[in-house]
Design goal:
The chain has eight helices and nine strands. By secondary structure, the chain is α/β, with parallel strands linked by helices. Strands 3, 4, 5, 6, 7, 8 and 9 form a seven-stranded mixed beta sheet that branches. Strands 1-2 form a two-stranded antiparallel sheet. The longest helix is centred in the C-terminal third of the chain and has 26 residues, at 130-155. It starts with a strand and ends in a 9-residue tail after the last helix. Mean pLDDT is 88; it is low at 199-205.
């Protein structure tokens, strides 16, 4: 989809994603994998180089995906000099929920948004001899411990409480997300647009 942009040179058609990124909006949508993670990193790097003080808005609607790719995105979110605000605009499941919860400068959900947490999954890694299977199991357990530590850090819950909540597919409404420490506030689309245009109430860090 293209939109019209007016300039001194007249009217130019640009992709809507380009126009939204010019307003410092980045989307996490679809599967989280190495390709989407690298695209995310490039965009955060560019916006930081452009202005390291103006907030970046990350809008999430994703089922999650690969842990390693998600951890790359997590590291960039935590290290970004430009403050990153997180918005769940639909659903954020699994790794996407961890990324949403990791926001340090505001975590906002639309009224009908939903989060889901669970233990790390095997994916397609099952196979091989007993040693290989044990190695996969050990890797999963370590991933589980890492995820639990991250969620405990950003929710204020104990790792034990996080483990209990993630030992099955646990779906959180916006209200439940706030109660568990995953989300800071429920906002309407109008408020989200105000925040992104610099008129919100969270302009100091």
């Amino acid at each position: 989809m293209n939109v019209q942009v007016k300039s001194s040179n007249g009217i130019t058609l640009v992709p809507v994603e380009t126009r939204l990124m010019a307003e410092r909006n980045i989307f996490i949508e679809g599967e989280i994998n190495s390709e989407s993670a690298c695209e995310f990193v490039k965009k955060v790097m560019y916006l930081n180089s452009e202005d390291a003080e103006e907030p970046i808005h990350v809008l999430i609607n994703s089922n999650g995906g690969e842990i390693n790719a998600g951890m790359l995105m997590y590291d960039v979110i935590q290290a970004s000099k430009a403050p990153i605000r997180m918005y769940c605009i639909g659903h954020a499941y699994s790794m996407a929920a961890v990324l949403f919860a990791s926001g340090n400068y505001g975590r906002y959900m639309l009224p009908h948004g939903e989060l889901m947490l669970h233990e790390p999954l095997l994916g397609n890694r099952v196979g091989g001899n007993s040693s290989s299977i044990k190695s996969i199991s050990d890797s999963l357990q370590e991933s589980k411990r890492v995820m639990n530590r991250i969620l405990a850090k950003h929710t204020g819950k104990t790792e034990k409480a996080v483990e209990k909540a993630t030992n099955y597919d646990h779906y959180f409404s916006p209200e439940e997300s706030i109660a568990f420490g995953l989300c800071d506030e429920i906002v309407g689309f109008d408020r989200m647009m105000e925040d992104e245009n610099g008129y919100g109430q969270n302009d100091t860090w």
